[in-house]
Amino acid sequence: ITARMTDTEIEGPGRHRNGDVLAESATKRDDVFDETYKEKEGPKPSMIIVWRNIILMTLLHIGAVYGITLVPSAHVLTWAWFVFCFLTSALGVTAGAHRLWSHRSYKASLPLRIFLATANSMAFQNDIFEWARDHRVHHKFSETDADPHNAVRGFFFAHIGWLLVRKHPDVIEKGKKLELSDLKADKVVMFQRKYYKMSVVLMCFSIPMFVPWCLWGESLWLGYFVPGLLRYTLVLNATWLVNSAAHMWGNRPYDTNINPRENKFVTLSAIGEGFHNYHHTFPYDYASSEFGCKLNLTTCFIDLMCFLGLAKDRKRVSPEIVLARAQRTGDGSTRNRSG
């Protein structure tokens, strides 16, 4: 396997440096905002509460709070295992479901796709197919009725409330019309979707709980609540903060016409996903940031995978295009933008 990195530097919407038009130009992508969409006039459909989800989410967070009380009594190796499980499951979302499968911002080898799919099951945030479909809808119809977690409806809705009610009819309608042939053609994605429930039981709960018990004698009780429930809950909330906080608080160096912001707290908690004004301006950039690996563990991971020959064809927006866009539509933030 060669360790040579092969990348694509995007000079403009849908163009390589050599002038060839990308197969997935910005005008044809499902993760670029659709200016033609108009919300339906008249009264909004009533929200239908999903009480099962409310009960489960309440119990989950109660369990996580209890898990915090157990942390001081955990073995030091359990703390290390907690961090490992957190980062692994987070990468399954950020490097996997998000940057690879939602935005196709780089290409991954079969071994890497298998790892990311497995890590994604550890994150338990819906299977890759459903996650990527909803995320493309989010970008294409951002902050409209067709956005699954429309931040215009408030912090709580964008953070967790959207999971506690039935989807808006426009979300369902637009999701059905997306071109998802790339996801359907990926055997790893479809295998995970077919066996998702089984993989979640194994990866999200069983392995985090049993490894400390088997290898260094940690109690199953503590293993379930700390690297299990507490870690899972923290990864969930880190992801949700991208939908909520990063759409409300922070600066907008690249485009003031959209609400997504650069939010350093979200950048740190979601291992690099808080450069959100940049990301919604250039959703096809694999780094999801102007600054490469700075405060961006996910980008570092993808770079490492390229160095090892397990990934290639990272799409990157040229500095000239970024600067021109910032000068044209940004909020005037200094060039030392870091979230």
Automatic annotation (TrEMBL):
<feature type="transmembrane region" description="Helical">
    <location>
        <begin position="195"/>
        <end position="215"/>
    </location>
</feature>
<dbReference type="GO" id="GO:0005506">
    <property type="term" value="F:iron ion binding"/>
</dbReference>
<keyword id="KW-0444">Lipid biosynthesis</keyword>
<dbReference type="GO" id="GO:0006636">
    <property type="term" value="P:unsaturated fatty acid biosynthetic process"/>
</dbReference>
<feature type="transmembrane region" description="Helical">
    <location>
        <begin position="76"/>
        <end position="97"/>
    </location>
</feature>
<keyword id="KW-0560">Oxidoreductase</keyword>
<keyword id="KW-0275">Fatty acid biosynthesis</keyword>
<dbReference type="GO" id="GO:0005789">
    <property type="term" value="C:endoplasmic reticulum membrane"/>
</dbReference>
<dbReference type="InterPro" id="IPR005804">
    <property type="entry name" value="FA_desaturase_dom"/>
</dbReference>
<feature type="domain" description="Fatty acid desaturase">
    <location>
        <begin position="79"/>
        <end position="284"/>
    </location>
</feature>
<dbReference type="GO" id="GO:0032896">
    <property type="term" value="F:palmitoyl-CoA 9-desaturase activity"/>
</dbReference>
<keyword id="KW-0472">Membrane</keyword>
<dbReference type="GO" id="GO:0004768">
    <property type="term" value="F:stearoyl-CoA 9-desaturase activity"/>
</dbReference>
<dbReference type="GO" id="GO:0070542">
    <property type="term" value="P:response to fatty acid"/>
</dbReference>
<dbReference type="GO" id="GO:1903966">
    <property type="term" value="P:monounsaturated fatty acid biosynthetic process"/>
</dbReference>
<feature type="transmembrane region" description="Helical">
    <location>
        <begin position="49"/>
        <end position="70"/>
    </location>
</feature>
<keyword id="KW-0812">Transmembrane</keyword>
<dbReference type="InterPro" id="IPR001522">
    <property type="entry name" value="FADS-1_CS"/>
</dbReference>
<comment type="similarity">
    <text>Belongs to the fatty acid desaturase type 1 family.</text>
</comment>
<keyword id="KW-0276">Fatty acid metabolism</keyword>
<keyword id="KW-0256">Endoplasmic reticulum</keyword>
<keyword id="KW-0408">Iron</keyword>
<keyword id="KW-1133">Transmembrane helix</keyword>
<keyword id="KW-0443">Lipid metabolism</keyword>
<feature type="transmembrane region" description="Helical">
    <location>
        <begin position="221"/>
        <end position="242"/>
    </location>
</feature>
<protein>
    <recommendedName>
        <fullName>stearoyl-CoA 9-desaturase</fullName>
        <ecNumber>1.14.19.1</ecNumber>
    </recommendedName>
</protein>
<dbReference type="Pfam" id="PF00487">
    <property type="entry name" value="FA_desaturase"/>
</dbReference>
<keyword id="KW-0479">Metal-binding</keyword>
<dbReference type="InterPro" id="IPR015876">
    <property type="entry name" value="Acyl-CoA_DS"/>
</dbReference>
